Amino acid sequence: MKELVEIIVKALVDEPDQVEITEELKDEEQVISIKVAPDDMGKVIGKQGRIAKAIRTVVKAAAIKDDAKVSVEILQ
Could you tell me whether strands 29-35 and 70-75 are parallel, antiparallel, or unpaired per DSSP bridges? Predict the structure, then answer.
């Protein structure tokens, strides 16, 4: 799942080398955290959060295939 998020986010930003994706397990739920350069934050979130919502939708669809619970957080 981490690799999927990394590919999507790096394609969106201007500084892909500053993208940091971390993955941890909290209460039987996999939490994927995204950290990008401050200038790229708007590109990952999108207007009214549409890009962020799309990323979460793709990840949840992939998680259903693996029968897992996954959430995506965008950190500053």
Answer: parallel
The whole-model pTM stands at 0.89
DSSP sequence for 8-57: HHHHH-S-GGG-EEEEEEETTEEEEEEE--GGGHHHHH-GGGHHHHHHHH
Q: Which amino acid is at 58?
A: V
Give the residue-averaged pLDDT of 44-58.
95
Query: Can you list the pairs that 66-69 forms with residues at least 24 positions away whose Cβ atoms lie under 8 Å?
Result: 66/1, 68/1, 68/30, 69/28, 69/29, 69/30
Q: Which residues contact 47 (CB under 8 A, 6 or more apart)?
A: none
